[in-house]
Amino acid sequence: MSDDPLVIFTPSGKRGRFPVGTPVLTAARQLGVDLDSVCGGRGICSKCQITPGYGEFSKHGVTVEADALSEWNSVEARYDEKRGLKAGRRLGCQATVLKDVIIDVPAESQVHKQVVRKRAEVRAITLNPSTKLFYVDVQQPDMHDPSGDLERLRKALLEQWEMDDVTADLHILHVMQKVLRKGDWKVTVAVHLGDNEHKPRIMHIWPGFYDGTIYGVAVDLGSTTIAAHLCDLQTGDVVASSGVMNPQIRFGEDLMSRVSYSMMNDRGAEEMTLAVREGMCGLFTQLASEAGIDKQLIVDAVFVCNPVMHHLFLGIDPFELGQAPFALATSNALRLRGRDLDLNIHESARVYFLPCIAGHVGADAAAVALSESPHLSDDLVLVVDVGTNAEILLGNKEKVLACSSPTGPAFEGAQISSGQRAAPGAIERVEIDPVSKLPRFKVIGSDLWSDEDGFDAAIAQTGVTGICGSGIIEMVAEMRMHGIVDAPGLIGTAEQTGSAAVFADGRTNSYRVYDGTAEGGPMITVTNRDIREIQMAKAALYSGARLLMDKFGVDKVDRVVLAGAFGAHISTKHAMVIGMIPDAPLDKVTSAGNAAGTGARIALLNREARIEIEEIVRNIHKIETAIEPRFQEHFVNASAMPNAVEPFPILNSIVTLPTQTFNTGGGGNGTGGEGGGRRRRRG
């Protein structure tokens, strides 16, 4: 093995070894990492800003020392003095590699900005927000009836709006007297209506009649992405939606890596809390800018997140979530203030966190339950929120079960050799010709297939850059359907498969999807290791679902709902071919889009829904996969495609999967015979 330093880029997961003194920008270009530069590496444009990560990263087997990169140089110092660099940032063209290092490429430094596909789903929601506007006529002060201005304002709210026992934050007292007199004793107040724990509270006051509105934000804080919807609290309309990569990703792509980082590094949890809060504030600024509003008009916020993100965002060390019995600091819903979390919105803004279900089943799963209502379903519905950590619900009117399954980031393009996140230029659809066994594909940003006229012109701006999550699932499924990869997950030789796209790659074979090297572009391939990563991810997902089916005492479900931004873009048939979801009629497998985000929006716009979800969560039965012996059994079976034991009769009525195996040690010469799955079932 080379002694050269190892450089690992996040969020792409691309890695390589480079000689000491190699500029980070050069390493990025050689690996095909999406790092921008306009000035040719002269330290002028600042497009190539990167954030190095320091400390112990057990997931990658790397400890990054403080001197992993060259010292701050005069070019960076000059740029920082003139235009300013964010704390911790370096210029990729100036910083050179000295030792093993983790490099995070922030969204603004990427050439192809991320497409965080978490749009606000169209949904009818009863509008009953927790903060509303009230116009009141306040009695003027009287020498004969002395009382304070606040007391007379409270009296007006009681008499004119039947609102009793109203309180006010200190900042209201600072401005109230001037506003009352400016409005000639007529004012509009924004009041947070309170709940079982809090009295109604005046949050803002305007002179006269305020004909504007107030806003709230619903946030789905995921391990990989943060998506938010800015809503008009008077109409319920979504006025802006936006998403960013979770800046914590540089500390680890999956949740346990982040727990490990907090355990291995002093102040590790504090670093991650600061990173995600800064990212959140940046997202709020982005939303307000997109909508053309003042951030100070955002008076309410609702958050849904998995337990680790929940704890880190709140500033709670997730240590206990890293070991059995996976104890949460609190599983109840939380009602806080924006300033408790350093949020850059209205100083009195209220924040609501949906309850968590269990140590590894978070508020995001609760939000999915609120959105999809399995507890009201007559038929048995399986709801899968596909992400770095899959949240799974199974239930009907009788009962609802829940668990989580650690799928990892492979479904989102990470840890895949040519993988990337969803961005223009990423392959998202794939078909393999049944005769030539050669692929054709579509990329994000173009409606044309790669073998259609005009494709090259259509992608001239972006090029073909890699394969995103939905693309890799279709790719592996197509390879399985057309006999290029067998049920156990081995890619055959060119002779065995009859495909000129297959080539020997070390001790195994790989499949060539696209060769852009002649034009200076990438060679995009699917390796046997990529197949294995997808097998592991889909096996974890299927095993969680199958475990819940065991607990329910059933072998099939009536329908499947795929939730999450990624779930909205999965091809149902391809997901079933690789055994990612249980066998079911294809027309009974539907997408709910970003159900967690929808649940957050419901809780933002309807305060009664907050009471409802707290009741729902109390009645959900939690299953912990880590202590269930059958989970591992299901996982081993689910590693095959689609499965080594489960028969998948509905899928088999739609497609006929090849049965040959390619393991020469097992007699698989590519000439047919029984598949590995069948031999396992007999044994």
From TrEMBL:
It comes from the Bacteria. InterPro entries: 2Fe-2S_ferredoxin-like_sf (IPR036010), 2Fe-2S_ferredoxin-type (IPR001041), Beta-grasp_dom_sf (IPR012675), Corrinoid_activation_enz (IPR052911), Raco-like_middle (IPR041414), Raco-like_middle_sf (IPR042259), RACo_C (IPR027980), RACo_linker (IPR040506). PANTHER family: IRON-SULFUR CLUSTER PROTEIN, IRON-SULFUR CLUSTER-BINDING PROTEIN-RELATED. This is Uncharacterized 2Fe-2S/4Fe-4S cluster protein (DUF4445 family). Residues 380-650 form the RACo C-terminal domain. It comes from Sulfitobacter guttiformis. Residues 120-211 form the RACo linker region domain. Residues 661-683 are annotated as: Disordered.
